[in-house]
Amino acid sequence: MNCAMRSSSNRPGQDRQRPCPPRQPRCGFNWRPGSFVGLFEKLRTAQFFNPGSSASLVRGRGGGQPPAGTGAAPRRDAARLPGMSSSRLVTIDCDYLGPGFAAAYLRVEGDEAAFVETNTTHAVPRLLAALDREGIAREAVRWVIVTHVHLDHAGGASALLAALPNATVLAHPRAARHLVDPSKLVKSAEAVYGAARFAELYGTILPIDAARVRSLEDRESVLLGGATLSFVHTRGHANHHFIVLDPAREAVFTGDTFGLVYPHLQRGRRFAFPSTSPTDFDAEAAHASIEVVRTSGARRAALTHFGEIEDLDVVAAQLHRWIDLSASLVEAAVPLAPAEAEAMIRKALDKEMERAAEEVGLALDARDHELLELDLALNAQGLAYVASKRRG
């Protein structure tokens, strides 16, 4: 399926056609400067995110509780030089707002390595420490891959690249220009958080030399050691998003396309929900992109939020239900005033979160609600923004 995602007809029993969405017009949606500062502060200081010591390196624990401690000890049996002759995938907890919230991945094949996602500038020491633990020289890193340029995925790219002399950043064509010139991203984020809070959350984001940024078209591939990595454009969450297919590991790196599966919420059966944060949510494209992941042939999905999972059908079914609800909420919000629309959407999302949790045997406690507050607020604003575009 190409990046236009014209049809989601491979959803069982459905054949939906849709026109390409319009470019984002100016629509008077009222972004509130500083509106998320309090939410980030709550998450940072909540007991939920202060378990004592957080895991910085996790192997093969997708959907599970991150282990205590600071990760595996450095490998003493591996030379810290290029020439590694192994294939492996390492999940790195970036400790963004706390453990188990955002991951980056270190992919090693033969004598080359790649990072998938960078999180923020503050996470870069953790990524470099993972190289040390795995006995991999910084010169061996060939690719730094960002699924899209939201700052919890790509905010650390410039700082990471400065430490990796042979690496090239791989990005969606619409994302690449923001890596070369991040000024618009920084300006818009500072307008929301304020300059001081932005620096605390994301650090300093510098331009990347255009010669070290490569744009990848839909279905384009690159080599890593002897393995092939293929890139599929997946709209729905962001118009500049791709996923990464890794047949050698039977894996797919999904960014935000395949939802959020926080380890701390997996106390019952699987519990997943999508990200519909501003500004590009598109329900039909999201449905289609979920199906691209589900039918990719991968045995496991490596989620940025958070970890490796193998029950792709279960997660896809939950996400489709959420996306259908989100689409209906957008339609219901179109005739409402902006503040009323967002309040209505948020109330409905809260209700669905409780219902979905109960369905899988998860009793949400106060700490869970603290974790979910930011995502629910962002999701409500994202849907309200889409409604405001349709309102005109």
From TrEMBL:
Q: Which Pfam families match?
A: Lactamase_B (PF00753)
The answer to whether keyword Chloroplast applies is: no
In terms of Gene3D superfamilies, this protein maps to:
Ribonuclease Z/Hydroxyacylglutathione hydrolase-like
Q: Where is this region: Disordered?
A: 1-26, 56-80
Which InterPro entries has this protein been placed in? Metallo-B-lactamas, NDM-1-like, RibonucZ/Hydroxyglut_hydro, ST1585_MBL-fold
Q: Which domain of life is it from?
A: Bacteria
One GO molecular function term of this record is: hydrolase activity
User: Which SUPFAM superfamilies does its entry note?
Assistant: Metallo-hydrolase/oxidoreductase (SSF56281)
In this protein, which residues make up the domain named Metallo-beta-lactamase?
A: 101-305
Asked if Hydrolase is a keyword of the record, the answer is yes
Q: Which UniProt keywords apply?
A: Hydrolase
Q: Where is the composition biased (Polar residues)?
A: 1-10
- Name of this protein: MBL fold metallo-hydrolase
Taxonomic lineage of the native organism: Bacteria, Pseudomonadati, Myxococcota, Polyangia, Polyangiales
